[in-house]
Write a structure and sequence with these properties.
The structure holds two protein chains of two kinds. By secondary structure, chain A is mainly beta. Chain A has three helices and 18 strands. A 16-stranded antiparallel barrel of chain A has the order 1-2-3-4-5-6-7-8-9-10-11-12-13-14-15-18. Classes of the chains: A mainly beta, B alpha/beta.
């Protein structure tokens, strides 16, 4: 009896509370767009992670750093559960937060504001965000054309890409075609070329600039981009001893021609070339001060639900080793995708010998909730 | 010489300042805006009339088009949700921000049909605000013309007289046309039809056509063999007159249905430029009302 009374009282108070929140002081309409994207895969490859971690400093994977961000293990992988929140903060700012939950913990993938009321076609961004360097760096994994990033991105820009706290200013140049000029300053030490000294990066910044152009020829859109980043590489070993320190520059050039046949199918040829120059006299860690790498890919969106792609990539100077990837994906709707990718890579060096890596990735990506549309 | 070309290049957008430069999402909005605005406005249409209005390709060139617009008029009803938001964000132009005085969402001014009671993506890619293809009821065109007139006056009161006169001319002409289309369509009341996607909902509503099925099993989901087999039985049983097919989806499944049941396929333009004959709003409804 007493129990029933308590429950009744609880229900009454709950319904009262409910009334309050849906009445005069209701805020439920202000809930931001919330989405959850889950990406999982089954991977089968002929090399172990130890092999990959111990790749030789002179190998084509670059000279330092973990090898990849996603699909890391042979067998099943939960790559991430991405929680994304987006809303206008007020009339002047929008706010975005993107969080990656994975078995190791939670990572603030991005958290930034964007201005929406600046004059002269200017737009500013601040917080932690993916840089607009190159064609792929600012794209989230779930919209990639392949399950993995190009080797040159992993090696030069780190598996997480250029993604750090900083500020960005972009200007749409008043030309009849699309032209965007952007400058960014990011906190250094995010991995890749710019090192792993996350603790001693006081005041050290990466300076990034890029120019992007686009115009249409009939139903084809052409994109041409030039990018540049400059900063201090600061690489330490496990004990914190400095292994390498010096100024490094990366130049990037990208081109893409995307021809649409109708609303649902297109063919896209996209290529990117990155050149890196490391300026320290220190030769202990890096044998080569200059390196360059590239990828070129052809993606055919056959119909609304089917897509297939072919990518060829490698590094110059070190060897002629190259990686080739082919993938095909099927979507049951805009919110669920199945992808099968095979890649053959003979750019990998171990114990002085090149060793071919064969990899099959079966990847599933799902999205629920309110997720904003993607740009071109 | 080279210098002069550059100067011309940068002067070009300035020369547009004389008129209101209005960006619109679809060709029909462009035609209405031009009709009401006359020579006081220039319009820039973002989408192509012969491609799927749900899947407009967000080419960077569209950002350049929206960059110096003085106003933006959209269809709304979530028809643009898959392509327009990133363009607005990237155009860095406060005049086209949602909620700015120079932004107009037409769907807020007409009554939407088929507003779903429950929304779940297991039911396909449904429009939670209701069916957004409202411009295909020619009675709505008149309402929209009035909305655009009020909008233009609100941002450019100096030319109020021009906009009112253009509206009243259009309104007189359109009312005559409405009468003609009504007579033309009178015999089609109660006729059953099949569609690919429910694009013609408002046209059907206006003239009493009954849409009994769609070729896509769920909104936004491509045809499946199971659903197509079901359609064959349904067509044989209910004997709809025809498939009213949009111009942008493949007619492959429709052709298969035709082969199995003998049903007629009629291409229905949804916007200006969808078919070569459809050049303006009058010819759009002339075509639609004569298609059956």
């Amino acid at each position: 009896m007493k129990k029933i009374l308590v429950i009744t009282a609880l229900c009454a108070s709950l319904s009262l509370a409910g009334q309050n929140s849906s009445g005069s002081f209701d805020q439920s309409k202000f809930i931001p767009d919330i989405s959850l994207i889950i990406d999982m895969s089954y991977v089968n490859t002929n090399v172990t992670n130890d092999d990959l971690d111990n790749n030789e400093p002179t190998s084509n994977y670059g000279d330092y750093g973990t090898f990849k961000e996603f699909n890391t293990d042979n067998g099943f992988n939960l790559n991430y559960a991405e929680l994304a929140l987006h809303s206008n903060a007020d009339q002047a700012f929008e706010l975005d937060g993107v969080f990656h939950f994975n078995p190791e913990g939670v990572e603030v993938e991005e958290a930034y504001f964007t201005t929406k009321a600046l004059a002269y076609n200017l737009r500013a961004k601040g917080g932690k965000f993916k840089s607009d360097f190159g064609r792929l760096n600012n794209q989230h994994q779930h919209i990639w054309d392949f399950a993995d990033a190009p080797l040159v991105y992993n090696s030069f820009l780190s598996p997480e890409g250029l993604n750090a706290p900083g500020a960005q200013l972009q200007w749409l140049v008043p030309t009849p075609w699309y032209m965007k000029l952007g400058f960014e300053m990011l906190q250094s030490g995010n991995g890749g070329t710019y090192g792993n000294d996350f603790d001693k990066k006081d005041g050290e910044s990466l300076y990034i600039g890029y120019l992007k152009n686009s115009f249409d020829i009939n139903d084809a859109s052409v994109l041409l981009g030039l990018s540049y980043v400059n900063g201090t590489s600061n690489i330490i070993d496990e004990d914190g001893t400095s292994l390498y320190k010096g100024n490094s520059e990366i130049y990037g050039a990208d081109v893409s021609v995307k021809n649409y046949f109708d609303s649902y199918s297109y063919i896209n040829w996209q290529s990117e070339f990155l050149y890196r120059q490391m300026k320290s006299d220190d030769t202990t860690l890096y044998a080569d001060k200059e390196q360059s790498g590239y990828y070129t890919q052809l993606v055919y969106q056959v119909a609304e639900n089917y897509k297939t792609g072919l990518r060829y990539e490698g590094f110059l100077k070190k060897s002629n080793g190259a990686k080739i990837s082919v993938d095909a994906s099927y979507k049951t709707s805009e919110f669920a995708q199945l992808r099968l990718q095979y890649s053959h890579d003979d750019a990998f060096k171990q114990n002085g010998n090149y060793k071919a890596i064969n990899e099959i990735i079966f990847e599933l990506t799902f999205a629920i909730g309110a997720h904003g549309a993607h740009s071109f | 010489m080279k210098k002069r070309i550059y100067i011309l290049l940068f002067m070009f957008p300035l020369s547009l300042l004389a008129n209101l430069n209005i960006a619109v999402t679809y060709p029909y909005i462009g035609a209405l805006t031009k009709t009401i605005g006359g020579d006081k406005v220039d319009t820039v249409v973002l989408a192509k009339g012969n491609w799927d209005p749900h899947f407009v390709i967000p080419r960077p060139s569209l950002i350049a088009k929206a960059r110096n617009a003085d106003a933006l008029i959209i269809n709304g009803g979530q028809l643009e949700i898959g392509w327009l938001p990133p363009l607005i964000s990237r155009a860095s132009n406060p005049k086209i921000n949602i909620n700015s005085k120079t932004f107009l969402d037409l769907s807020r001014h007409v009554e939407l049909l088929q507003k779903p009671l429950n929304v779940d993506r297991a039911g396909g890619d449904v429009h939670p605000d209701g069916n957004p293809h409202f411009h295909l009821d020619p009675n709505n065109i008149l309402i929209l013309a009035g909305v655009i007139k009020d909008f233009l006056i609100s941002i450019d009161s100096e030319n109020k007289g021009v906009y009112e006169k253009n509206f009243s001319d259009f309104s007189g002409m359109w009312k005559v046309k409405l009468g003609m289309w009504k007579i033309k369509m009178a015999n089609n009341r109660g006729v059953k039809i099949v569609q690919y996607h429910n694009v013609m909902a408002y046209f059907n509503h206006a003239y009493g056509l009954i849409s009994i099925a769609t070729i896509e099993p769920l909104p936004g989901i491509p045809p499946s063999s199971r659903h197509t087999i079901h359609l064959i039985d349904l067509i044989k049983e209910q004997k709809p007159c025809c498939i009213l097919h949009d111009v942008y989806h493949s007619t492959k499944t429709a052709e298969f249905l035709k082969e199995k049941t003998g049903i007629k396929i009629i291409l229905m333009p949804h916007d200006l430029g969808a078919l070569d004959e459809v050049e303006d709003l009058v010819s759009l409804f002339d075509y639609l009302s004569g298609a059956l």
